[in-house]
Design brief:
heterodimer; A: elongated; B: mainly alpha; 3 helical TM bundles of succinate and fumarate reductases
Chain lengths: 112, 151
Amino acid sequence: MRTRFTGLKAWWVQRVSAVYMLLFVLFLLYSFALQPLRAFSQWHAWMARPVTSVAFLVFFTALLGHMWVGMRDVLLDYARPAALRQVLLFASAFGLLGLGVWLLWILLRLQG
Amino acid sequence: MTPPDQRLDASGDRLASQIPETSARDIALVHRPVFLNLMRIQLPVGALTSIGHRISGVVLIASVPIAVYLLGLSLGDEAGFLQVKALFTRFAVKAAALVMIWALAQHVLGGVRHLLTDFDIGSPLRVARRSAWFVNLAAVAVALFAAGALW
Protein backbone atom coordinates (compact mmCIF):
# COMPACT_ATOMS: atom_id res chain seq x y z
CA MET A 1 0.00 0.00 0.00
CA ARG A 2 1.33 3.37 -0.97
CA THR A 3 0.42 5.54 2.01
CA ARG A 4 -0.03 9.15 1.16
CA PHE A 5 0.39 11.92 3.77
CA THR A 6 3.68 10.57 5.06
CA GLY A 7 6.99 12.14 6.02
CA LEU A 8 7.31 15.89 5.68
CA LYS A 9 3.89 16.17 4.06
CA ALA A 10 2.27 14.51 7.09
CA TRP A 11 4.23 16.86 9.35
CA TRP A 12 2.76 19.85 7.53
CA VAL A 13 -0.78 18.42 7.44
CA GLN A 14 -0.58 17.86 11.21
CA ARG A 15 0.66 21.38 11.99
CA VAL A 16 -1.49 23.39 9.57
CA SER A 17 -4.66 21.48 10.55
CA ALA A 18 -3.77 21.89 14.24
CA VAL A 19 -3.47 25.68 13.94
CA TYR A 20 -6.75 26.00 12.01
CA MET A 21 -8.62 23.76 14.46
CA LEU A 22 -7.19 25.68 17.44
CA LEU A 23 -8.40 29.01 16.02
CA PHE A 24 -11.74 27.44 15.05
CA VAL A 25 -12.37 26.01 18.53
CA LEU A 26 -11.51 29.37 20.12
CA PHE A 27 -13.92 31.06 17.67
CA LEU A 28 -16.67 28.54 18.59
CA LEU A 29 -16.18 29.08 22.33
CA TYR A 30 -16.24 32.85 21.89
CA SER A 31 -19.26 32.71 19.60
CA PHE A 32 -21.33 30.44 21.88
CA ALA A 33 -20.36 32.40 24.98
CA LEU A 34 -21.52 35.57 23.27
CA GLN A 35 -24.72 34.15 21.80
CA PRO A 36 -25.90 30.75 23.03
CA LEU A 37 -28.13 28.95 20.48
CA ARG A 38 -30.86 27.41 22.60
CA ALA A 39 -33.57 26.72 19.99
CA PHE A 40 -33.48 24.44 16.94
CA SER A 41 -34.36 27.25 14.50
CA GLN A 42 -31.50 29.44 15.80
CA TRP A 43 -28.99 26.56 15.71
CA HIS A 44 -30.05 25.46 12.23
CA ALA A 45 -30.03 29.01 10.82
CA TRP A 46 -26.58 29.73 12.28
CA MET A 47 -25.10 26.51 10.86
CA ALA A 48 -26.72 27.10 7.45
CA ARG A 49 -25.06 30.51 7.02
CA PRO A 50 -22.51 30.21 4.20
CA VAL A 51 -19.67 31.59 6.38
CA THR A 52 -20.35 29.04 9.15
CA SER A 53 -20.82 26.15 6.72
CA VAL A 54 -17.57 26.88 4.89
CA ALA A 55 -15.69 27.32 8.19
CA PHE A 56 -17.05 23.93 9.32
CA LEU A 57 -16.17 22.35 5.96
CA VAL A 58 -12.56 23.48 6.36
CA PHE A 59 -12.62 22.33 10.00
CA PHE A 60 -13.84 18.83 9.06
CA THR A 61 -11.20 18.57 6.33
CA ALA A 62 -8.50 19.60 8.83
CA LEU A 63 -9.92 17.17 11.41
CA LEU A 64 -9.89 14.18 9.04
CA GLY A 65 -6.34 14.94 7.87
CA HIS A 66 -5.14 15.38 11.45
CA MET A 67 -6.88 12.14 12.50
CA TRP A 68 -5.18 10.25 9.67
CA VAL A 69 -1.68 11.39 10.67
CA GLY A 70 -2.35 10.59 14.33
CA MET A 71 -3.93 7.17 13.70
CA ARG A 72 -1.12 6.27 11.31
CA ASP A 73 1.54 7.23 13.87
CA VAL A 74 -0.13 5.21 16.62
CA LEU A 75 -0.73 2.15 14.40
CA LEU A 76 2.84 2.17 13.06
CA ASP A 77 4.12 2.30 16.65
CA TYR A 78 1.95 -0.33 18.29
CA ALA A 79 0.06 -2.54 15.79
CA ARG A 80 1.73 -5.97 15.44
CA PRO A 81 2.11 -8.08 13.37
CA ALA A 82 2.59 -6.22 10.08
CA ALA A 83 -0.40 -7.90 8.41
CA LEU A 84 -2.74 -6.71 11.18
CA ARG A 85 -1.20 -3.23 10.92
CA GLN A 86 -2.01 -3.09 7.20
CA VAL A 87 -5.60 -4.16 7.85
CA LEU A 88 -6.00 -1.53 10.56
CA LEU A 89 -4.48 1.19 8.34
CA PHE A 90 -6.90 0.29 5.54
CA ALA A 91 -9.81 0.21 7.99
CA SER A 92 -8.82 3.64 9.37
CA ALA A 93 -8.61 5.13 5.88
CA PHE A 94 -12.03 3.75 4.96
CA GLY A 95 -13.48 4.91 8.26
CA LEU A 96 -12.18 8.44 7.67
CA LEU A 97 -13.58 8.45 4.12
CA GLY A 98 -16.94 7.33 5.51
CA LEU A 99 -16.86 10.11 8.12
CA GLY A 100 -16.04 12.61 5.36
CA VAL A 101 -19.05 11.56 3.26
CA TRP A 102 -21.29 11.67 6.34
CA LEU A 103 -20.11 15.18 7.29
CA LEU A 104 -20.50 16.42 3.72
CA TRP A 105 -24.05 15.07 3.71
CA ILE A 106 -24.83 16.88 6.99
CA LEU A 107 -23.51 20.16 5.58
CA LEU A 108 -25.26 19.82 2.21
CA ARG A 109 -28.58 18.95 3.87
CA LEU A 110 -28.40 22.31 5.69
CA GLN A 111 -28.54 24.19 2.39
CA GLY A 112 -31.40 22.11 0.92
CA MET B 1 53.99 -7.15 28.59
CA THR B 2 50.19 -7.39 28.40
CA PRO B 3 48.88 -10.92 28.81
CA PRO B 4 47.37 -12.10 25.51
CA ASP B 5 43.82 -12.44 26.91
CA GLN B 6 43.69 -8.72 27.81
CA ARG B 7 44.69 -7.35 24.40
CA LEU B 8 42.00 -5.20 22.78
CA ASP B 9 41.09 -4.89 19.12
CA ALA B 10 40.54 -1.57 17.33
CA SER B 11 37.01 -1.08 18.66
CA GLY B 12 38.18 -1.55 22.25
CA ASP B 13 36.49 -4.92 22.63
CA ARG B 14 38.36 -8.06 23.44
CA LEU B 15 39.14 -10.06 20.33
CA ALA B 16 36.37 -12.52 19.61
CA SER B 17 38.82 -15.37 19.58
CA GLN B 18 39.83 -14.50 23.13
CA ILE B 19 36.30 -14.51 24.58
CA PRO B 20 35.88 -17.80 26.42
CA GLU B 21 33.05 -20.00 25.27
CA THR B 22 29.74 -19.23 26.94
CA SER B 23 28.50 -22.00 29.15
CA ALA B 24 24.93 -22.71 30.22
CA ARG B 25 25.95 -21.58 33.71
CA ASP B 26 26.94 -18.12 32.37
CA ILE B 27 23.54 -17.68 30.67
CA ALA B 28 21.76 -18.52 33.92
CA LEU B 29 23.80 -15.85 35.70
CA VAL B 30 22.79 -13.11 33.23
CA HIS B 31 19.06 -13.56 34.12
CA ARG B 32 17.43 -12.89 30.78
CA PRO B 33 14.79 -11.88 29.88
CA VAL B 34 14.76 -8.97 32.30
CA PHE B 35 11.35 -8.20 33.76
CA LEU B 36 10.79 -4.57 34.68
CA ASN B 37 8.43 -3.68 37.50
CA LEU B 38 6.30 -1.02 35.81
CA MET B 39 4.96 0.21 39.15
CA ARG B 40 8.47 1.19 40.19
CA ILE B 41 9.26 3.19 37.05
CA GLN B 42 8.64 6.88 37.66
CA LEU B 43 8.02 8.83 34.49
CA PRO B 44 9.32 12.41 34.33
CA VAL B 45 6.55 14.98 33.92
CA GLY B 46 7.39 15.54 30.25
CA ALA B 47 6.86 11.86 29.56
CA LEU B 48 3.40 12.10 31.15
CA THR B 49 2.56 15.03 28.87
CA SER B 50 3.87 13.05 25.90
CA ILE B 51 1.86 9.89 26.57
CA GLY B 52 -1.08 12.10 27.62
CA HIS B 53 -1.02 13.65 24.14
CA ARG B 54 -1.34 10.18 22.58
CA ILE B 55 -3.98 8.89 24.98
CA SER B 56 -6.08 12.04 24.63
CA GLY B 57 -5.73 11.82 20.84
CA VAL B 58 -7.06 8.27 20.83
CA VAL B 59 -9.94 9.28 23.14
CA LEU B 60 -10.80 12.14 20.78
CA ILE B 61 -10.72 9.87 17.71
CA ALA B 62 -13.07 7.46 19.47
CA SER B 63 -15.47 10.32 20.27
CA VAL B 64 -15.56 11.81 16.74
CA PRO B 65 -18.11 9.36 15.25
CA ILE B 66 -20.40 9.94 18.25
CA ALA B 67 -20.02 13.71 17.90
CA VAL B 68 -20.79 13.53 14.16
CA TYR B 69 -23.89 11.44 14.88
CA LEU B 70 -25.10 13.96 17.48
CA LEU B 71 -24.35 16.88 15.14
CA GLY B 72 -26.41 15.30 12.34
CA LEU B 73 -29.24 14.46 14.74
CA SER B 74 -29.36 17.97 16.19
CA LEU B 75 -29.46 19.55 12.71
CA GLY B 76 -32.00 17.10 11.23
CA ASP B 77 -35.22 18.38 12.77
CA GLU B 78 -36.68 19.86 15.95
CA ALA B 79 -37.29 16.42 17.50
CA GLY B 80 -33.66 15.41 16.93
CA PHE B 81 -32.43 18.67 18.45
CA LEU B 82 -34.53 18.12 21.59
CA GLN B 83 -33.36 14.49 21.76
CA VAL B 84 -29.70 15.60 21.82
CA LYS B 85 -30.52 18.26 24.41
CA ALA B 86 -32.25 15.64 26.59
CA LEU B 87 -29.25 13.30 26.27
CA PHE B 88 -27.03 15.85 27.97
CA THR B 89 -29.14 15.81 31.13
CA ARG B 90 -28.09 12.19 31.78
CA PHE B 91 -25.21 11.50 34.14
CA ALA B 92 -23.44 8.96 31.90
CA VAL B 93 -23.53 11.32 28.91
CA LYS B 94 -22.23 14.22 31.01
CA ALA B 95 -19.42 12.02 32.35
CA ALA B 96 -18.47 10.96 28.81
CA ALA B 97 -18.55 14.61 27.70
CA LEU B 98 -16.30 15.49 30.64
CA VAL B 99 -13.71 12.87 29.61
CA MET B 100 -13.86 14.25 26.07
CA ILE B 101 -13.36 17.82 27.29
CA TRP B 102 -10.36 16.74 29.38
CA ALA B 103 -8.91 14.95 26.34
CA LEU B 104 -9.48 18.00 24.15
CA ALA B 105 -7.84 20.34 26.67
CA GLN B 106 -4.86 18.00 27.18
CA HIS B 107 -4.43 17.51 23.43
CA VAL B 108 -4.79 21.19 22.50
CA LEU B 109 -2.47 22.45 25.25
CA GLY B 110 0.08 19.69 24.59
CA GLY B 111 -0.20 20.48 20.89
CA VAL B 112 0.50 24.18 21.44
CA ARG B 113 3.54 23.12 23.49
CA HIS B 114 4.70 21.00 20.53
CA LEU B 115 4.16 23.89 18.11
CA LEU B 116 6.22 26.20 20.33
CA THR B 117 8.96 23.57 20.40
CA ASP B 118 8.94 23.65 16.57
CA PHE B 119 9.97 27.31 16.87
CA ASP B 120 12.60 26.41 19.47
CA ILE B 121 10.60 28.00 22.27
CA GLY B 122 10.68 26.20 25.61
CA SER B 123 13.21 23.50 24.71
CA PRO B 124 15.63 23.86 27.67
CA LEU B 125 14.88 21.19 30.26
CA ARG B 126 13.81 23.53 33.06
CA VAL B 127 11.35 25.40 30.85
CA ALA B 128 10.14 22.18 29.20
CA ARG B 129 9.43 20.62 32.61
CA ARG B 130 7.56 23.72 33.76
CA SER B 131 5.43 23.85 30.60
CA ALA B 132 4.74 20.10 30.91
CA TRP B 133 3.44 20.67 34.46
CA PHE B 134 1.37 23.58 33.19
CA VAL B 135 -0.20 21.50 30.38
CA ASN B 136 -1.11 18.57 32.65
CA LEU B 137 -2.53 20.75 35.43
CA ALA B 138 -4.32 23.21 33.13
CA ALA B 139 -6.07 20.33 31.32
CA VAL B 140 -7.40 19.08 34.68
CA ALA B 141 -8.40 22.64 35.58
CA VAL B 142 -10.34 22.98 32.32
CA ALA B 143 -12.06 19.65 33.04
CA LEU B 144 -13.03 20.83 36.55
CA PHE B 145 -14.38 24.06 35.10
CA ALA B 146 -16.37 22.06 32.54
CA ALA B 147 -17.69 19.80 35.30
CA GLY B 148 -18.96 22.89 37.08
CA ALA B 149 -20.71 24.02 33.90
CA LEU B 150 -22.18 20.56 33.17
CA TRP B 151 -23.61 19.89 36.64
